[in-house]
Write a structure and sequence with these properties.
Layout: H1 6-18, E1 25-27, H2 31-44, E2 52-54, H3 57-63, E3 68-71, H4 79-87, E4 91-94, H5 102-114
Parallel strand pairs: 1-2, 3-4
């Protein structure tokens, strides 16, 4: 997951509650928020594993080993990590609204279609 703020944690914890997912990595520019989210996820997921943490979405994506990337950043930061993730071959879930304008949303849609995501 990219973006460990309130919305991100709410969405991720609900997913953990309804599906047997393994959260392997979290990303946020705020190191305190990131560490707190990693501790919370570790306490909630069945495996008890602590997700790896990244301060930059590009590092998270480059590390690989992901099935899906959740983009939970503020709206004005949705496009870049989403496009990078689909370009790397990952499926992506993006919190709404998808972006701040139609041009960004179209670029996101074009990237998803070009990569079969």
């Amino acid at each position: 997951m990219v973006g460990c703020g309130w919305y991100g944690k709410c969405d991720l914890l609900q997913l953990i509650n309804i599906e047997p997912v393994e959260v392997v990595a979290l990303c946020d520019v705020d190191s305190k928020l990131l560490s707190e989210a990693a501790d919370l996820v570790q306490s909630r997921q069945a495996s008890g594993n602590r997700p790896k943490t990244y301060g930059n979405y590009e590092d998270l994506i480059a590390a690989g080993g992901l099935d899906i990337v959740m983009v939970e950043t503020p709206d004005h930061w949705h496009a870049l990590p989403m496009i990078a993730a689909v370009n790397a071959g990952f499926d992506v879930w993006v919190q709404k609204p998808t972006s701040v304008d139609v041009a960004e949303s179209k670029a996101m849609l074009d990237a998803a279609r070009a990569n079969g995501r």
